[in-house]
Amino acid sequence: MIGTKFTKDDLACENDVQKRKRAADTFKRLSKIFPDAKIALNYDSPVQLAVAVILSAQCTDKKVNEVTASLFKKYKTVKHFASADQKIFEMEIKSTGFYRAKAKNIIAMAKLVESKFGGQFPKTMAEAVTLPGVARKSANVILGNAYGVVDGIAVDTHVMRISQRLGVTKFSDPVKIEKDLMKLFPKSWWFKFTYLIIEHGRNICEAKKPRCSICPLNNICPSAFNLPNWR
Ligand code: SF4
Q1: Residue 100 and residue 87: Cα distance in Å, rounded?
Q2: Contact 220 CB / ligand 1 (< 6 Å)
Q3: Which of 18, 83, 156, 227 is the most buried (most CB within 10 A)?
């Protein structure tokens, strides 16, 4: 099945074994071209990472790093964030967008980490997702990078879009996409997969105009042959 042309018809009759083989090929090819794929956010502690992740909603990692370069000099510990003045904090993070909601969530998150978790960002998914501003995707990013705890696959906008284009999920709900991906890959690949796909999405399979003609996946991706306007 995997050859010079992989079409949506091929996809329709692909079985689970073939899909896993294609997923493994995808992982290996992307690992070759993006061997250093990793998180782009800067941080010095789990709570700073949690703050950076909350700030990154609807904002680029580059902008978040610009803002946190000075923010993290002032706010280093959970206590610092928990006792931040909301109005001042809002102004300090304003350029990341949605600053009122983000400031509120960050301060509330830090207060809860202090009162409920003894000042240390929790190490389990069940606990992390109880914090304001921390949903499953963010928790996957924080736990994986801060503690090496891998509970699932972080599904951001790149992972969502590219998983659909590759035909490895038919869902648009991130939690359902995550479940599909977790079935396809061995657990030891889950953490790396997110960062490989993010690099791929930034450099090749861009949202508006995927560069299928130079894509290393173009003979195992059904979208390469069905959306000619993209090329
Ligand atoms: S072939 Fe095109 S649509 Fe498929 S992964 Fe590559 S760039 Fe994206």
Answers
A1: 8
A2: no
A3: 156
